[in-house]
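#structure-requests
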Amino acid sequence: MRKILAMILAGGRGDELSVLTQMRPKAAVPFGGLYRVIDFPMSNLMRSGIENVGILSQYRSYSLINHIGNGASWEMVGRERSVTILPPFKKHRYSEWYRGSADAVFQNLGFIRVHDPDLVLVLSGDHVYAMNYGPLIDFHLEHDADLTIAFTRTDRSQASRFGLGRLELEAGRRGGRLVEYLEKPETVPDWPEQRYWASLTIYLFSAKVLAEVLDQYMTSDPKGFEFGRHLIPEMVKKQRVFGYWDDGYWGYTRTIDEYWQTNMDMLGEHPRIDPEQWQVRTNLAHDLVRDRPPAHVDSGARIENSLIYSGCRIKGTVKNSILFPGVEIGENVQVEDSILMFDAKVAAGCRLHKVITDAEVYVGPECEIGSGDPAIPNEEYSQLLRSGITLIGRGAHLPARCQIGSNCIVHPNLTPAQFRQRQYESGVSIQ
């Protein structure tokens, strides 16, 4: 058995998730009614038998630290098993924030050397997928690779959003030599195979080669701090780099639209994401999930194609939506195509369409949210909100009978008095 250490990149805020990451990193954003996004790579590691993990955290780490705990939820506690949160730290001569993915791993080479692994698996903490890393590891060892990157197929129209690999595919095998790599190219190349492989940000390194490459590129005069943009293109020229393709579901949560759609992929008669089948674990002590009573659904309530968890109280109508523990829906309420996080409360007579609320939001009686023209983008953040989704930040308290259009942002902890001082129209942001 080869000794494997996993390093999860979980330090970024992700500005494109707006108020959802104002108080937490992307990896700790609640997902799917019960989980955090980081639960998916953590559960993949557990199922793959990889039991030593370093989590590279930087931005507002408390929520992530609180969720991970000692790693017991993923059976990573014991003499030979561990989960360690690795924030930036002050060094003897200088101190630096993590300047990128490669720099974050470089700053923790001491941690890697203490574990003395044969292989280092570097993962993103903000992707939703189910994968056994065992076949990837076998492929890497069979090819005596210095680095193996996992890819999935993508359309040319989407190719510029990802790291792109050009592979020399081997007949009957799930990959081949990586001959070219481009990180989010502005112009998509016309590769002769007409196949575009998107990086899943799953990197399997020989530990020795990883240390050598990082020492070479990150000391003296570093020319870049990212694996995808700087180190991997250079390694393709000089080291044995291979690509391994995976054809399973892979959900992106980089933008609000992607986050919403990936959540919606948990709904339907045949959901694309099935946490029970995937065996996804979470920390049930976080947000007191395990201590809440069963959900209560009144006789007059109507629930259609939705996920509802412990502690919810439903009196109105919920369609095509996901309700986290503790959500309360009042009488004559209609919630549709929405995601309501922990302990959100919607008073009687409200209408919510395509709304994402963070935790502990209160919506006063007879409010109408998300009713505007979805084609009118947000005035300040037109690139973030242009598909009709409205965001309500954590702890916001909306007064009775307020109207909020589509593509709006309500910032955290807004009070009724502050709300009344501002006018809500479709496509605005209220602070």
